[in-house]
Amino acid sequence: MAISVAISKSEDVHYNGNITWFVLLSSIIAATGGLIFGYDTGVTGGVTSMDPFLKEFFPGIYRKMKENSDTSNYCKFDSQLLTSFTSSLYIAGLVASLFASRVTRALGRRASILIGGAAFLTGACLGGVARNVYMLIFGRILLGVGVGFTNQSVPLYLSEMAPAKYRGAFNMCFQLCVGSGCLIAYVINYGTQKIKGGWGWRVSLAMAGAPALIITVGAIFLPDTPNSLIQRGHDQEKAKRLLQRIRGTENVQAEFDDLITASEASRTLKSPFKTILERKYRPQLVMSIAIPFFQQVTGINVIGFYAPILFRTIGSGVSASLMSSVVIGIVGTSMTLLSLFIVDKVGRRVIFKIGGILMLIPQMMIGGIMAARLGDHGALSQGYNILVLVLICIYASGFGLSWGPLGWLIPSEIFPLEIRSAAQSINVGVGFLLIFIVAQTFLVMLCHFKAMIFFFFGVWVALMTVFVYFLLPETKDVPIEKMDTIWGEHWYWKRFVGDAHEYEDSKVLGL
Fold first, then answer.
1. How far apart are the first and last CA of the chain?
2. What pLDDT was estimated at residue 416?
3. CA gap 106, 239 in Å, rounded
4. Taking Cα atoms as reference points, which of 328, 290, 233 lies closest to residue 423?
5. CB proximity list for 286: less than 8 A, separation 6 or greater
6. More confident residue, 378 or 188
7. Where are the transmembrane segments (predicted)?
8. How far apart are CA 223 and CA 260, in angstroms?
9. Contact 422, 277 (CB under 8 A)
10. For the whole model, what pTM was predicted?
11. Residues 329-367: pLDDT tens digits?
12. Is-contact 421 156, C-beta < 8 A?
């Protein structure tokens, strides 16, 4: 049985237009939403490894680290209050993403981006001046609202603005900004932990307001996408002129006609969340759940949230732990940049497979090293510390190449317009739910699973690579409004999409 998928029906569909300064600048501003998400992911693990921060807000953990030598290496940071600080953002993001779907559909992508940026800016300010743990957590909730709105709207904005043949690269700018945000946070944490007086963590938390300010102000000047204007019933000539400006050519009739067709189908639906449950949308529904699920069970957010804590677990000091995070961030971001340049040339499936291998092998090796060499009360030698750092860098390179950027790209490009906002909300909501679960349970799992935690995530990496091989068709070079053709030609999904089309045709013919 052939697994590869031809896209013969869509090979002859070509839209005019190239990358223009207009679409480039608009997309850069929108992709700054990734900086928000990335910075917060990276800054959290750093500040929670700083002694002054722990001493002020989590004194129980601080005492356990400094005074209780009987505590296992794997259990020193086991605290539900600490994990609540980390994970509260993501449960708030989950709830916000559901509301964001209605805003994005009714008011447009730009409005959703603006709301998200403003909420995040407020949360960053509150975190920087926090006087107790409750202020910290409330600030995190506001950050979650901001991330929920921007993560729901920015990938859609990028995919709809980009020319079809460059859509992969444009959308990956979001993940590139996520990785860059993490890296910036790591560098700032490394510098602020050296500030005398123990208030450096406040700088780290407050600096999240910088990217939030950029996207909030930038969103005021962003145009909405032609797709969104047409969907919301705006003047079609205005939408066409905007499309011509975006593409840099007058000849956009083919793409514009497809936008009109998709919009007319979209307007007939009163409940996108109910519609996506229909049989003909089964591939998109499965992908909107499976892709974000697998993206999170790679274990990447364990590295993002807790890399400094992880290195302190194996015996590194605070400064060395934070510097290790900087190295990991550089590697991951560099590989995302590489993926941006090759994704529209080699395709999505090849990158997924390479990334799976690069993530699986290091996880298994790290688990083996920690099981054999660390123990409950010892520390790894300098040589093994370096080896673990190298292996984590290889793992981060695999994620930065594949599941990091493609986990955002694939869902944003496969959904028909009529279910696009609802499906993206499911995608973001599932992602936030899994991030919340991983963030909330990891320190407990680390305490109980110990070195086996890496084998746990390794098994999921193997499963998701198999899933991609058999069930994800190639989407390279397929126009976003013609994406439904790939499901009807897939060896498995055609049984759902094909049956649905046959049923609709029979109704039209009166059979």
1. 33
2. 83
3. 16
4. 290
5. 471
6. 188
7. 21-39, 81-99, 111-130, 136-158, 170-188, 200-222, 285-309, 321-343, 350-372, 384-406, 426-446, 452-472
8. 19
9. no
10. 0.72
11. 888 889 988 998 898 889 999 999 999 999 999 989 988
12. yes
Give me the amino acid identity at 40.
Answer: D
pLDDT tens track for 54-65: 888 878 777 766
Instruction: Locate 103 and state its tokens.
Output: 């805003």
- Report which secondary-structure segment, H or E, holds 472: none
> What secondary structure, in 3-state letters, does 382-442 show?
HHHHHHHHHHHHHHHHHHHHCHHHHHHHHHHHHCCHHHHHHHHHHHHHHHHHHHHHHHHHH
Q: Which of 124, 129, 132 has its CA nearest to residue 89?
A: 124
Report the distance separating Cα 189 and Cα 321, nearest Å.
10
DSSP string covering 113-164: HHHHHHHHHHHHHHHHT--SHHHHHHHHHHHHHHHHHHHHHHHHHHHHHS-G
d(CA 490, CA 414): 14
* Residue 112 predicted with pLDDT over 80: yes
As to burial, measured by CB atoms within 10 angstroms (0-12 exposed, 13-18 middle, 19+ buried), residue 461 is: buried
- Alpha helices by DSSP H, 5-20: 8-11
Give CA angle at 134 (130, 140), nearest 5°. Answer: 75
Q: Which residues contact 495 (CB under 8 A, 6 or more apart)?
A: none
Most confident of 133-147, 222-236, 373-387: 133-147
Residue 352 to residues 42, 168, 474, Cα–Cα distance (Å): 24, 13, 11
Name every residue whose Cβ is closer than 8 Å to that of residue 120 and which is 6 or more positions away in sequence. 36, 142, 143, 145, 146, 147, 150, 208, 209, 212, 216
CA–CA distance, 493 with 483 (Å, rounded to integer): 13
Q: Which of 22, 38, 399 shows the shortest CA–CA distance to 212?
A: 38
